[in-house]
């Protein structure tokens, strides 16, 4: 029988350094004999990648942004995440729903309760052919939150690439996004592992591994 699927998400403000560590983790899981599905949000399917292009580059209000994120997520769950978990894969997802709470909720000030309602709708296991899912709401098993002061992240991103709509926001926006992540982590402490990302890459990599080893995941 295939090993039970494992769903890990990676979160943090832009430039926190999460993408830097995802490939190395994928290699570690493969070395342990696991199949890995690497994916991201918004995105991960042809439809959701189209939504990504719109959401990251077109101006729109916070409700439109939130609805697009959840629509893309539903497609991503149906076509990629749920089938991968059913196969027993380790799913490594660069951002998931906590990003919607942090960016649209914290950063843009959109109603937290309404986001919770949308989360229940979009991540409802019913209709996703997910008989293996015990809980009605599909959530990551563990979320690694790369926490870093916005000024540090901005310095890392400066000149690295042409900034998108979110990356062009001022530090105050990212202070609010960071507070959104903190609120989410406080509400679901068993699902979150906070990684101090304001350290050299090697120290962050050690902290990531320790978080997984401590929970018996690696
Ligand atoms: N610990 C670190 N110290 C210094 N620089 C770092 C560290 N980790 C990553 N970087 C650099 O910071 C930049 C952003 O890193 P990365 O792309 O991994 O962040 P990210 O969280 O995935 O960002 P985004 O969400 O915007 O894609 C890259 O240039 C990367 O090389
Ligand atoms: C899932 C999700 C993402 N965002 C924002 C966060 C980032 O600024 C971009 C994605 O870019 P990345 O380079 O892949 O990190 O989108 C958001 O606002 N809401 C969401 O739900």
Automatic annotation (TrEMBL):
- UniProt enzyme class: transferase
* MF annotations from Gene Ontology: dTMP kinase activity
Q: Where is the Thymidylate kinase-like domain?
A: 10-206
InterPro entries, per database record:
P-loop_NTPase, Thymidylate_kin-like_dom, Thymidylate_kinase
EC number(s) of the enzyme? 2.7.4.9
CDD domains in the record? TMPK
Keywords in alphabetical order: ATP-binding, Kinase, Nucleotide biosynthesis, Nucleotide-binding, Transferase
- Positions bound to ATP: 12-19
Query: Domain of life of the organism in this record?
Result: Bacteria
According to its UniProt record, which reaction does this protein catalyse?
Answer: dTMP + ATP = dTDP + ADP
HAMAP family cross-referenced by the UniProt entry: Thymidylate_kinase
Task: Tell me, in a sentence or two, what this protein's role is.
Answer: Phosphorylation of dTMP to form dTDP in both de novo and salvage pathways of dTTP synthesis.
What's the name of the protein? Thymidylate kinase
The opening ranks of the lineage are: Bacteria, Pseudomonadati, Pseudomonadota, Betaproteobacteria, Burkholderiales
């Amino acid at each position: 029988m295939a090993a039970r699927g494992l769903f890990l998400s990676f979160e943090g403000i832009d430039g926190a350094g999460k993408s830097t560590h995802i490939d190395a983790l994928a290699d570690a899981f493969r070395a342990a004999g696991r199949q890995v599905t690497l994916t991201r949000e918004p995105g991960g399917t042809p439809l959701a990648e189209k939504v990504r292009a719109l959401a990251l580059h077109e101006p729109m209000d916070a409700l439109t942004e939130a609805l697009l994120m959840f629509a893309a997520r539903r497609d991503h769950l149906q076509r990629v995440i749920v089938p991968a978990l059913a196969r027993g894969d380790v799913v490594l997802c660069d951002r998931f729903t906590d990003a919607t709470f942090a960016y649209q909720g914290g950063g843009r000030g959109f109603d937290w309760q309404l986001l919770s309602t949308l989360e229940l709708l979009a991540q409802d296991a019913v209709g996703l052919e997910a008989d293996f899912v015990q809980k009605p709401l599909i959530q990551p098993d563990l979320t690694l939150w790369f926490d870093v002061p916005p000024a540090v992240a901005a310095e890392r991103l400066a000149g690295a690439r042409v900034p998108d709509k979110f990356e062009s926001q001022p530090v105050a926006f990212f202070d609010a996004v960071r507070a959104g992540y903190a609120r989410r982590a406080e509400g679901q402490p068993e699902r979150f592992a906070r990684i101090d990302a304001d350290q050299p890459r090697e120290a962050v990599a050690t902290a990531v591994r320790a978080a997984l080893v401590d929970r018996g995941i690696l």
